[in-house]
């Protein structure tokens, strides 16, 4: 996919964010403010000051909105859901250069809260994916006990598991064992 650093980065961030939700089959990944601070650190979300319980509540709600975009039944639904999210988000485009990355766009408002920051940058990244006609790359893992989401960046859009090192391997081993038993 011919996407720049910021877009690839924002897509990876929204995938990580959605996958903290228990609705993707695992434990609560944002159980408290420490988890939230760790997410901000790991995803290098810039310009974020002290986090409050309000931030935690807002980010947990936002990830469910994003999850609905990933699990939308068709492109029209994904567009509708994303438009609602973008309409509720303050967006201020600005060109920036930081941390060794070439000039790229940021979309969050200068005084954005963490949820607003994520809604703006991740929302725009998903919007570009839809504009490119790549909605189908937004996937949910095919492993039976996993509902984690991912963006399929494979050339032929053939990826079905959330992470080839975990679910992919696990499923291959299970299929191998099943064949041996047969
Ligand atoms: Zn940046
Ligand atoms: Zn999985």
UniProtKB/TrEMBL annotation:
Pfam families noted in UniProt: ABATE (PF07336), zf-CGNR (PF11706)
UniProt superkingdom: Bacteria
Organism phylogeny: Bacteria, Bacillati, Actinomycetota, Actinomycetes, Streptosporangiales
Official protein name in the record: CGNR zinc finger domain-containing protein
Domain Zinc finger CGNR: 137-180
Species assigned in the record: Nonomuraea recticatena
Family matches, as InterPro entries: ABATE, ABATE_dom_sf, Znf_CGNR
């Amino acid at each position: 996919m011919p996407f720049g650093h910021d877009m690839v980065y924002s897509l990876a961030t929204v995938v990580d964010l959605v996958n903290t939700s228990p609705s993707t089959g695992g434990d609560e990944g944002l159980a408290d403010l420490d988890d939230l601070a760790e997410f901000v650190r790991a995803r290098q979300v810039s310009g974020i000051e002290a986090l409050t319980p309000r931030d935690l509540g807002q980010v947990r709600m936002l990830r469910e909105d994003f999850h609905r975009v990933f699990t939308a039944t068709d492109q029209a639904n994904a567009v509708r859901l994303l438009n609602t999210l973008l309409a509720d988000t303050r967006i201020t485009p600005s060109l920036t250069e930081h941390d060794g990355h070439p000039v790229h766009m940021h979309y969050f408002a200068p005084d954005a809260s963490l949820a607003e920051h994520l809604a703006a940058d991740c929302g725009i990244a998903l919007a570009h994916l839809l504009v490119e006609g790549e909605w189908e790359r937004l996937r949910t893992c095919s492993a039976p006990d996993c509902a984690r989401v991912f963006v399929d960046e494979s050339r032929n859009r053939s990826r079905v598991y959330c992470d080839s090192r975990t679910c992919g391997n696990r499923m291959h081993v299970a299929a191998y064992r099943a064949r041996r038993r047969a």
